[in-house]
């Protein structure tokens, strides 16, 4: 049985537990890369081949964790003797704790988005940048938006989304400046997609097109190239930092689970301290349950402060070592 046939059978097995098409495509893409990383037939693969493949990857931690998980499941599924053939499988495919993708000083401000939109000369792309930012969308998520997901209501525009992981609907809103341009774009639209591909009929724009355009645009508008993912991180940081907003309401707008919130809270140490101090002011007339919840929140904030301070100390030490070596 050749490699691709084996992979096809494995994907059928995975479909019994994975129903998200994008996830299945990701599994297929990465496993195909693994099984074709060597010219050996699969029955000749050993631990050295796995080590070589893992060490050849240069993905970010979250992506690497996904790839390791895919491979680990595949190996246990395909090799009856996996525990002998891949003796250190658990260690090789061990999940790593991801570091923060961005630092607080990298976060975009409202004025940065304004500059990007002002320097953009295409109406569709103006709407895309505003929607990506204010909606807190993932790049591909925004690309695939359909007009039938948009609800123009008296007090603002609402975007209806469906989360495949939880099988639940949730809603995002956009501010007035984005709403007006969205309405203008709709007047001349002949596609079911809000952001149709300029070259491929019946399709939407893709993340690669977004990346290419943003690299040029951000360099012109901000004097530097920025990654598209920073839009989502930036608006999340702005909203979570606003003491007038409840974290649960922000999580609804962002489509965050509790575990995901910390990933997008790219706040400075001072801001986290400020929020932690402000929590005590709200303790008047609280019920025992509310006090317990508040206590947990403060403990989480203090833990985050400690982690940031430790990271800062480490960074300063590394810099001191670099300076020291440079003087020699």
Radius of gyration: 24 Å
CATH architecture of the largest domain: Orthogonal Bundle
Helix fraction, binned, reads: 55-70%
Question: Structural class, from secondary structure content?
Answer: mainly alpha
State the name of the first-level CATH class of the largest domain.
Answer: Mainly Alpha
Low-confidence stretches: 275-283
Could you tell me the strand content as a percent range?
5-15%
Mean pLDDT across the residues is 82
Apparent shape: globular
Overview of the molecule:
With 328 residues, this protein is mainly alpha-helical. The protein folds into three domains: 90 residues, Orthogonal Bundle (DNA polymerase, domain 1), CATH 1.10.150; 150 residues, Intergrase catalytic core (hpI Integrase, Chain A); 60 residues. The protein has 16 helices and three strands. Strands 1-2-3 form a three-stranded antiparallel β-sheet. The N and C termini lie far apart (60 Å).
List keywords for this structure.
3-stranded antiparallel sheet, hpI Integrase, Chain A, DNA polymerase, domain 1, 3 domains, 6% strand, single chain, globular, 328 residues, mainly alpha
Secondary structure elements and their pairing?
Blueprint: H1 3-14, H2 21-35, H3 47-56, H4 61-78, H5 82-85, H6 89-92, H7 110-119, H8 123-134, H9 139-143, E1 150-153, E2 156-163, E3 168-174, H10 176-187, H11 207-222, H12 230-241, H13 247-254, H14 258-264, H15 269-281, H16 288-327
Antiparallel strand pairs: 1-2, 2-3
Helix pairs in contact: 1-2, 2-4, 7-8, 7-11, 8-10, 15-16
């Amino acid at each position: 049985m050749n490699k691709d046939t084996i992979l096809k059978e494995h994907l059928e097995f995975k479909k019994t537990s994975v129903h998200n098409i994008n996830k299945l495509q990701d599994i297929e893409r990465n496993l195909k890369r693994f099984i074709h990383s060597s010219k050996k037939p699969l029955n000749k693969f050993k631990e050295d081949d796995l080590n070589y493949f893992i060490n050849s990857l240069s993905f970010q931690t979250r992506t690497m964790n996904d790839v390791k998980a895919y491979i680990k499941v595949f190996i246990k599924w395909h090799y009856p003797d996996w525990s002998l053939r891949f003796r250190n499988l658990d260690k090789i495919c061990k999940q790593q704790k991801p570091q923060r993708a961005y630092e607080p000083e990298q976060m975009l401000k409202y004025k940065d988005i304004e500059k990007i939109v002002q320097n953009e000369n295409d109406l569709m792309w103006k709407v895309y940048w505003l929607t990506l930012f204010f909606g807190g969308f993932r790049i591909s998520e925004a690309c695939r938006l359909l007009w039938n997901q948009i609800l123009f209501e008296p007090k603002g525009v609402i975007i209806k989304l469906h989360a495949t992981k939880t099988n639940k609907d949730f809603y995002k809103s956009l501010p007035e400046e984005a709403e007006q341009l969205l309405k203008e774009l709709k007047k001349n639209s002949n596609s079911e997609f809000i952001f149709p591909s300029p070259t491929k009929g019946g399709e939407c724009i893709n993340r690669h097109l977004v990346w290419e355009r943003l690299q040029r645009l951000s360099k012109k508008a901000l004097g530097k190239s920025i990654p598209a993912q920073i839009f989502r991180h930036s608006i999340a940081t702005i909203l979570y930092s606003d003491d007038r907003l409840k974290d649960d309401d922000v999580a609804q707008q962002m489509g965050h689970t509790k575990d995901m919130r910390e990933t997008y809270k790219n706040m400075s140490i001072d801001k986290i301290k400020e929020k932690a101090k402000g929590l005590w002011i709200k303790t008047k007339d609280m019920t025992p349950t509310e006090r317990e919840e508040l206590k947990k929140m403060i403990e989480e904030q203090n833990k985050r402060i400690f982690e940031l301070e430790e990271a800062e100390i480490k960074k300063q030490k590394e810099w001191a070592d670099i300076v020291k070596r440079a003087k020699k």
